[in-house]
Amino acid sequence: MSSDPKRMIRIARETGTTDPAAPEPLDLGIRVRELRKAKGWTLEQASVQAGLARSTLSKIENGQMSPTYDALKKLALGMGVSVPQLFTPAQAPQVSGRIVVTKSGEGSAHATTTYEHELLAGSLSKKQMLPYRATIRARAMEDFDGWVRHEGEEFLFVLTGVIRLYTEFYEPVDLRRGDSAYYDASMGHNVISLSQEDATILWVTSLA
User: Fold this and answer.
1) What percent of the chain has pLDDT over 70?
2) pTM metric for this prediction
3) 64 in the same domain as 16
4) What would the DSSP string read from start to end of the chain?
5) Is 50 exceeded by the pLDDT of residue 80?
6) Are residues 200 and 112 part of one domain?
7) Residue-wise over 47-69: b if at least 16 C-beta within 10 A, else e?
8) Residue 100: inside a domain, yes or no?
9) 83-130: per-residue pLDDT in tens?
10) Pick from 116, 151, 123: which is nearest to 137 by CA?
11) Confidence class for position 146, pLDDT limits 50, 70, 90
12) Residue 117 placed within a domain
């Protein structure tokens, strides 16, 4: 088959790959052979999976023929990929291996009139989540200047005491030690303590 990159880019665009940051197209034959070998398949096994003749698959791998779009669809389905992925390299798994430990009481403290936050994993940059331990000082909705809202989603887990979670579109809910809630953080929300002592919770906020 021809390895004309313009032709492969055109096929990829016609099948949904328009991301300018996408990897450069690969030679189809090389890519198909890599996919087949990664699965440990012989030509015969791969041809059965794709519903193509063994000779056809062999010619595709060796660049001796240009498959029709129907053949490409069968090939992609058999290999368990999309048609554009037939022309792009596999994404290598990336393991960052990052870790940071925050011992009890060593988090960065940020106090407000309603909450006292202890930011956890503060030294870790470019986090996808913002974890912190919060002491709930507020005792009534009147303690807040309106709803708290921000981007992302949020998870809270009650560590000690009893809290009441107010949300903009739902009835208030009381949560005790071991209870949790997950909600859209762009929805107005506030938390107050119902305990005699300030309740504490673990709060995790997504940054997306």
Assistant:
1) 84
2) 0.56
3) yes
4) ----HHHHHHHHHHTT---TTSPPPPPHHHHHHHHHHHTT--HHHHHHHHT--HHHHHHHHTT-----HHHHHHHHHHHTS-TGGGGSPPPPP----------TT-SEEEE-SSEEEEESSTT--S-SEEEEEEEE---SGGGSSS-B--SSEEEEEEEESEEEEEETTEEEEEEETT-EEEEETTS-EEEEE-SSSPEEEEEEEE--
5) yes
6) yes
7) bebbebeeebbbbbbeeeeebee
8) no
9) 878 877 766 666 667 888 999 889 888 888 899 999 999 888 778 889
10) 116
11) very high
12) yes
Residues 112, 62: one domain?
no
Range of the domain at 60: 5-87
Give pLDDT, residue 14: 45
Domain count, the chain: 2
